[in-house]
Design a protein that fits this description.
The complex is a heterotrimer. Chain B is mostly helical. In chain B, 39% of the residues lie in helices and 5% in strands. In chain B, a hairpin with a 7-residue loop joins strand 3 and strand 4. In chain C, strands 1-2 form a two-stranded antiparallel ribbon. In chain C, helix 4 packs across helix 5, helix 5 packs across helix 10 and helix 6 packs antiparallel against helix 9. The radius of gyration of chain C is 23 Å and the shape is globular. Classes of the chains: A alpha+beta, B mainly alpha, C mainly alpha. Chains in contact: A-B, A-C, B-C.
């Protein structure tokens, strides 16, 4: 194609290139804008987001009682700790913990209530509660590979690298309702 | 000759076994730039809740969807908690009922379709989530139906049926649901049959197409963009083709 | 670019695209009726893209299908948009393909040496029809179910038909096995269509595009596909998308049937079972023959007729521009097909039935009687020397 400059400004390659450039950019912007709804459709849908946070009635839990609820497809352990359990957690020296977190770091705002995601941080099994034990021996044990968690949900022995994760939560209605997520 | 007979034929389709075509109403949402009248939506929801929900479900609507009507999160929470939602099984293995949450959907008035039929003379009150899209003539039809209960002009009806001007076949199993002053509107509007029919139709139009306003807004932007893009392509095309002799 | 050269040396994609897409010599006198091929291809891609994203949320089970579609409409981000794009895209696909075919019919693009190109096109049409038919069943509305029931029941017309139909259904009526397999096949067929489209393109490039004069274009009358026809196709795409977007955003249920927003009920048959508009002419042909088997044969015969058209119309002049009788008969055929479409939506009784029968007869007469006769008796008029 002949690209030589003509006297006619319409034939001027520079003007043609500007037009081509504009048209191309506008086209590309359109394609990107058109791609967005498709990509966004893969984000969690409204009904999934609606249960992204849940409210749990904790009014019936006495100290020393737990309940397990499902949140975002995962089990969440909620435990109303006894004073001895709290003390045992707070008194544990950090040096004995692989993942050093104080109980205050974890549940300082309301130490009576423990809220953790019930998934072992090793390879994802659900630990079981160690019942009927002395407060210092309480906590959870993961049957899969033997990870043991204390009364604060912290890893004390076994292959798990991290303490049990804590979701975002807040208390409503005078501590009778726990909102998770 | 063929065209004349085709034309005459077309005329014969009118008033066949179909009901008459419902008259056109003015709907705030009808035009390409139309939106839902929020006040009408709220009144319509009130009509649905107090009148229609006794028999008709609206199963694709969740309480949280009502934010589109202008309800606040707190109001929705309260509204939801007034409903009992089936849940379970509990640890004893039983199904139970619990107060509704915003994420729940409106419960069905009946446990299942058979129960619905048993309670309604063998007829099944349809779910209303899609009623506007599921009827030819859409909102105009629903309004005409709700205001179309007339005295029976010697039309053959079975027991439990009522004459309706616009229902296909004219024999409908639903008793006239609306009557003057049946609902006391929260916003004080006078609850005539026409008003309630208009409002509940608006609400159901929203229920059938909750995305409508967003769809029209986005549509305007997309088409404007496309017109610009097409114009640019056209100009580029003319430049490129200039001088090519055909 | 060095990388492109490295790849091209081992897998000549760059050379391939330069030859077949960029430099590809195309007659310079093509009109806008030649835009519909690229529009068809792009619509196919749009359908596959929107379809895959719908499939991420759709559930092909009778208890959940309808609900899952409503979930897409109400809960999935932008789900209503993707669904309406797909639903109306089917109608747009048939609009552009029918116009593409009409171009072929008018300008004689099916004639020697392009007979196989045309046949491949008819194969694509058949695959599209199967895909669209199965796709319409998936939302599991009243029309989905009853349309599937009526059309699958057709196969009982053939000898041994009952077992064929049971085999199709995977049961004794249209039910869950049917829905599930229709979903699997609906997902599969478009990729087979892609394959046949590629054969279609290879076959096209063998002799190059036809042009409005129907004359073989000489080298001097050809221009490279890029930039001339890339930009023209882009402009055509712009116009097309404007129309498509207007439908999707402002009248998304125009082509649809309200009854399909009612969940399928095997106990209640809708008063009027109507297929989607693009099937209406075939539906009219089907119902115009009193015998069940006859109707099925006539319907498939209508498509088969298209396939053998290169041998029915062997007139030496390709383009209807220079065929004074054929060009008029072409428009009569168009009106005839529209009439068949109108009849397809009407109940098959009274005057409608007779008009439908007349229109069906005329369709076959056009191809099987008029075309061969014109071969012999039509004199061409005004055939130019060159294409410009």
């Amino acid at each position: 194609m002949d690209e030589s400059t003509d006297k006619n400004p319409i034939e001027d390659p520079k003007r043609r290139d500007f037009l081509k450039l504009t048209a191309t950019s506008v086209g590309v912007v359109g394609v990107c804008a058109a791609a967005w709804p498709f990509i966004n459709s893969m984000n969690p849908a409204a009904d999934v987001m609606a249960v992204a946070s849940i409210e749990v009635d904790i009014s019936k839990l006495e100290p020393g009682q737990s309940l397990t609820t499902m949140w975002r497809g995962k089990p969440v352990f909620i435990r109303r700790r006894t004073l001895e359990e709290i003390k045992a957690a707070q008194d544990t020296p950090l040096s004995t913990l692989p993942d050093k977190q104080t109980d205050h770091d974890r549940f300082g705002k309301n130490p009576e209530w423990l809220v953790v995601i019930g998934i072992c941080t090793h390879l994802g099994c659900v630990p079981t509660e160690r019942k009927n034990m002395a407060p210092a021996e309480g906590g959870w044990l993961c049957a899969c590979h033997g990870s043991r968690y204390d009364t604060s949900g912290r890893i004390i022995e076994g292959p798990a690298p991290r303490n049990l994760d804590i979701p975002n939560y807040e208390f409503l209605n005078n501590n009778t309702v726990l909102k998770i997520g | 000759m063929i065209f004349v007979s085709i034309f005459l034929l077309a005329l014969t389709t009118l008033g066949a076994e179909h009901a008459p075509i419902p008259p056109k109403q003015n709907w705030s949402f009808a035009s390409p730039t139309g939106t839902f009248d929020r006040a009408a939506l709220q009144r319509g929801f009130q009509v649905y809740k107090q009148v229609c929900s006794a028999c008709h479900g609206i199963k694709y609507i969740s309480f949280r969807h009502l934010a589109a009507l202008g309800l606040t999160e707190a109001e929705i929470k309260v509204l939801a908690s007034q409903y009992q939602i089936k849940d379970g099984p509990n640890d004893a293995g039983d199904m139970f009922e619990r107060p509704g949450r915003p994420s729940d959907y409106f419960p069905n008035p009946y446990a299942n379709n058979k129960q619905a039929r048993a309670a309604n003379n063998g007829s099944l009150p349809p779910d209303l989530s899609l009623v506007i899209k599921a009827r030819e003539h859409a909102a105009n039809y629903l309004y005409a139906l709700l205001t179309g209960f007339k005295e029976n002009p010697n039309f053959k009806l079975s027991p439990g049926q009522y004459y309706n001007e616009y229902f296909p076949g004219h024999a409908i199993s639903m008793a006239p649901p609306l009557s003057e002053g049946l609902v006391t509107y929260n916003d004080g509007t006078n609850a005539t049959v026409d008003q309630m029919a208009h409002d509940v139709t608006t609400f159901l139009a929203w229920a059938s197409e909750p995305e409508m306003e967003q769809r029209k807004r986005l549509g305007l932007k997309v088409i404007l963009y496309l017109l610009v893009m097409t114009g640019l392509f056209y100009a580029t095309m003319r430049r490129i083709w200039k001088g090519v002799r055909k | 670019m060095k990388i492109l050269e490295w790849i091209d040396h081992r897998l000549p994609v760059v050379t391939f695209f330069r030859k077949e897409l960029k430099d590809y010599p195309t007659p310079k006198n093509l009109n806008y009726m030649w835009n519909f091929g690229s529009l068809s291809g792009i619509t196919l891609l749009i359908m596959i893209l929107s379809g895959v994203f719908l499939a991420m949320n759709y559930v092909p089970h009778v208890d959940m299908a309808f609900d899952s579609v409503e979930r897409i409409m109400r809960e999935v981000n932008g789900g209503w948009l993707i669904r309406y794009i797909h639903m109306n895209g089917a109608s747009m696909f048939f609009i552009v393909v029918y116009l593409h075919m009409l171009r072929g019919l008018y300008y004689g693009s099916y004639k020697n040496p392009r007979e196989l190109l045309w046949i491949l096109g008819v194969v694509i049409l058949l695959l599209m029809m199967a895909t669209a038919f199965m796709g319409y069943v998936l939302p599991w509305g009243q029309m989905s179910f009853w349309g599937a029931t009526v059309i699958t029941n057709l196969f009982s017309a053939f000898p041994g038909g009952e077992s064929i139909v049971q085999w199709l259904w995977g049961g004794f009526s249209v039910d869950n096995p049917t829905l599930n397999r229709f979903f699997a096949l609906h997902y599969l067929l478009p990729f087979i269509i892609i394959g046949v489209v590629m054969l279609h393109m290879v076959s096209l490039h063998r002799f190059g595009s036809n042009n409005p004069t129907g004359l073989d274009a000489k080298k001097k009358d050809k221009i490279p596909f890029h930039p001339f026809y890339t930009i023209k196709d882009l402009f055509g795409l712009g116009v097309y998308l404007c129309i498509y977007a207007f439908i999707v955003f402002f009248m998304p249920n125009f082509f649809g049937e309200p009854d399909n927003y009612i969940q399928a009920n095997p106990l209640v048959t809708p008063p009027h079972i109507v297929p989607e508009w693009y099937f209406l002419p075939f539906y009219a042909i089907l119902r115009s023959i009193p015998s069940k088997l006859g109707g099925v044969l006539a319907m498939f015969g209508a498509v088969f007729t298209l396939m053998v058209l290169p041998w029915l119309d062997r007139h030496p002049v390709r383009s209807a521009r220079y065929r004074p009788i054929f060009s008029k008969l072409f428009w009569v055929l168009v009106i005839n097909i529209i009439t068949l479409g109108w009849i397809g939506a009407k109940p098959p009784e009274g005057a409608y039935l007779w008009i439908g029968r007349a229109a069906t007869a005329y369709y076959f007469i056009h191809f099987w009687v008029f075309c061969p006769l014109l071969d012999r008796f039509e004199k061409a008029k005004g055939v130019p020397e060159e294409i410009v």
